[in-house]
Design goal:
By secondary structure, the protein is mostly beta strands. It has one helix at residues 29-32; strands spanning 2-4, 10-13, 20-23, 34-37, 47-49, 54-56, 67-70, 73-77, 82-89, 94-99, 104-110. The protein has one domain (18-110). Strand 1 (2-4) and strand 2 form a beta hairpin. It is globular. It starts with a strand and ends with a strand.
Protein backbone atom coordinates (compact mmCIF):
# COMPACT_ATOMS: atom_id res chain seq x y z
CA UNK A 1 0.00 0.00 0.00
CA UNK A 2 1.32 3.45 -0.87
CA UNK A 3 1.61 6.26 1.68
CA UNK A 4 1.30 9.89 0.63
CA UNK A 5 2.18 13.13 2.40
CA UNK A 6 -0.19 16.10 2.66
CA UNK A 7 1.04 17.30 -0.76
CA UNK A 8 -0.12 14.00 -2.29
CA UNK A 9 3.47 12.89 -2.97
CA UNK A 10 4.28 9.23 -2.52
CA UNK A 11 6.58 8.80 0.46
CA UNK A 12 6.70 5.04 0.98
CA UNK A 13 4.97 1.75 0.38
CA UNK A 14 3.82 -0.70 3.00
CA UNK A 15 2.72 -4.26 2.57
CA UNK A 16 -0.92 -4.87 3.58
CA UNK A 17 0.18 -7.84 5.68
CA UNK A 18 2.03 -5.47 8.03
CA UNK A 19 -0.17 -4.75 11.03
CA UNK A 20 1.75 -2.18 13.05
CA UNK A 21 4.94 -0.20 12.73
CA UNK A 22 6.40 2.03 15.45
CA UNK A 23 9.26 4.39 14.51
CA UNK A 24 11.07 7.23 16.28
CA UNK A 25 8.32 7.68 18.87
CA UNK A 26 8.08 11.00 20.69
CA UNK A 27 4.81 10.09 22.42
CA UNK A 28 4.08 7.43 25.03
CA UNK A 29 1.99 4.66 23.54
CA UNK A 30 0.42 3.98 26.95
CA UNK A 31 -1.22 7.41 26.67
CA UNK A 32 -2.39 6.80 23.09
CA UNK A 33 -3.69 3.24 23.37
CA UNK A 34 -7.32 3.02 24.39
CA UNK A 35 -10.86 3.62 23.26
CA UNK A 36 -11.59 7.24 22.35
CA UNK A 37 -14.66 9.41 21.86
CA UNK A 38 -15.36 13.05 21.10
CA UNK A 39 -18.55 12.95 23.16
CA UNK A 40 -18.29 11.19 26.54
CA UNK A 41 -22.10 11.10 26.80
CA UNK A 42 -22.49 9.20 23.51
CA UNK A 43 -23.52 5.52 23.70
CA UNK A 44 -20.48 4.43 21.68
CA UNK A 45 -16.86 5.46 21.08
CA UNK A 46 -15.29 6.76 17.88
CA UNK A 47 -12.24 4.50 17.61
CA UNK A 48 -9.96 2.10 19.46
CA UNK A 49 -6.17 2.14 19.17
CA UNK A 50 -4.06 -0.72 20.49
CA UNK A 51 -0.63 -2.24 19.95
CA UNK A 52 -2.31 -4.62 17.47
CA UNK A 53 -4.64 -2.42 15.43
CA UNK A 54 -6.77 0.64 14.85
CA UNK A 55 -10.53 0.03 14.88
CA UNK A 56 -13.34 2.37 13.94
CA UNK A 57 -16.09 1.68 16.46
CA UNK A 58 -19.35 1.20 14.62
CA UNK A 59 -21.88 -1.54 14.08
CA UNK A 60 -20.47 -2.68 10.74
CA UNK A 61 -16.73 -2.56 11.37
CA UNK A 62 -14.94 -5.05 13.53
CA UNK A 63 -11.84 -5.42 11.42
CA UNK A 64 -8.32 -4.58 12.49
CA UNK A 65 -6.84 -1.74 10.45
CA UNK A 66 -3.04 -1.53 10.24
CA UNK A 67 -1.31 1.71 11.11
CA UNK A 68 2.08 3.36 11.35
CA UNK A 69 3.07 5.43 14.37
CA UNK A 70 6.08 7.59 13.52
CA UNK A 71 7.19 10.29 15.97
CA UNK A 72 3.84 11.93 16.78
CA UNK A 73 2.21 11.10 13.44
CA UNK A 74 -0.25 8.30 12.86
CA UNK A 75 -0.99 6.91 9.41
CA UNK A 76 -4.02 4.63 9.22
CA UNK A 77 -4.15 2.25 6.24
CA UNK A 78 -7.76 1.76 5.20
CA UNK A 79 -8.47 -0.68 2.36
CA UNK A 80 -8.82 2.03 -0.29
CA UNK A 81 -6.70 4.89 1.11
CA UNK A 82 -4.48 6.03 3.94
CA UNK A 83 -4.82 8.95 6.34
CA UNK A 84 -1.83 10.65 7.96
CA UNK A 85 -2.60 12.75 11.04
CA UNK A 86 -0.62 14.52 13.78
CA UNK A 87 -1.10 13.69 17.44
CA UNK A 88 -0.71 17.05 19.19
CA UNK A 89 -1.43 16.05 22.82
CA UNK A 90 -1.83 12.95 24.97
CA UNK A 91 -2.27 14.45 28.44
CA UNK A 92 -4.89 13.78 31.15
CA UNK A 93 -6.79 11.02 29.32
CA UNK A 94 -7.25 13.39 26.39
CA UNK A 95 -6.03 12.76 22.87
CA UNK A 96 -5.78 15.65 20.41
CA UNK A 97 -5.36 14.91 16.72
CA UNK A 98 -4.83 17.44 13.95
CA UNK A 99 -6.54 16.05 10.87
CA UNK A 100 -4.64 16.76 7.67
CA UNK A 101 -7.67 16.70 5.39
CA UNK A 102 -9.27 19.78 6.97
CA UNK A 103 -6.42 21.15 9.12
CA UNK A 104 -8.49 21.11 12.31
CA UNK A 105 -7.70 19.67 15.70
CA UNK A 106 -10.13 17.28 17.35
CA UNK A 107 -10.14 16.47 21.06
CA UNK A 108 -11.00 12.95 22.20
CA UNK A 109 -11.41 11.63 25.73
CA UNK A 110 -11.02 8.08 27.00
CA UNK A 111 -14.23 6.12 26.71
Amino acid sequence: MDVYDSGKRKIESIEPSVKIIFKNLVIHTTKVFGTWTQDPTAPFADFRLSAKSFNVVDFESDSDIPYLLDKNEITVFYKDKSHKEIITSTENDTLKIKWANNNTETEYVKF
